[in-house]
TrEMBL record:
The keyword Iron applies. Coiled coil: none annotated. Keywords: Heme, Iron, Metal-binding. PROSITE patterns: CYTC, PROKAR_LIPOPROTEIN. It comes from Microvirga ossetica. It comes from the Bacteria. The lineage of its organism: Bacteria, Pseudomonadati, Pseudomonadota, Alphaproteobacteria, Hyphomicrobiales. This is Cytochrome c domain-containing protein.
Amino acid sequence: MRLALGFIGLSLLAACDSGTEQRDAVASTRAVQRAYVPLPPGTISRGSAARQAALAPPGPAVTPELLARGEGRFRVFCTPCHGPRGRGDGTVVSRGLPSPPSYLDERLRLYSPEQIVGVITRGRGRMFPYADRVLPEDRWAIAHHVKRLQAEGGADP
Ligand code: HEC
């Protein structure tokens, strides 16, 4: 009888052990699972040839539509820090965030649209990259809007 109980106890222990192993296996499978998220239209995956092509200079033709698009996207993504005229006086600056340089600085006036696209894509210093939020075509649109703000000299319209 004692032997039988001991045997049951052992097999219960063994059962518990194998249960733990199973849970671990499941947990480690879950860790590599990724939720399926459908790609929004116009998305270009990182590192793809299409993305490289979309970021290659000279970029899309500068049309009134592209500039209008750039102005709208600039207002959404850049104005909070850089201000509506790019003078580095966005609303978050008044709340204590580091103030960005004015686009009217001599150094930044010399930036080509391609360089501005590069800053949006990769970030710079304390500025985060925006590659995951702004499509390549929109980066060009924003860059040309920045060049227009510089050409206008930061004057209020
Ligand atoms: C959260 C605030 C914030 C947002 C939003 C932001 N920037 Fe910046 N940006 C900064 C700061 C801060 C710097 C200064 C970075 C540094 O030199 O450390 C900067 C610097 C820059 C520069 C100058 C880089 C250089 O070489 O000195 C450019 C150009 C620029 N931003 C463009 C943009 C554009 C275009 C957008 C919108 C897509 C944008 N930024 C959005 C904070 C921001």
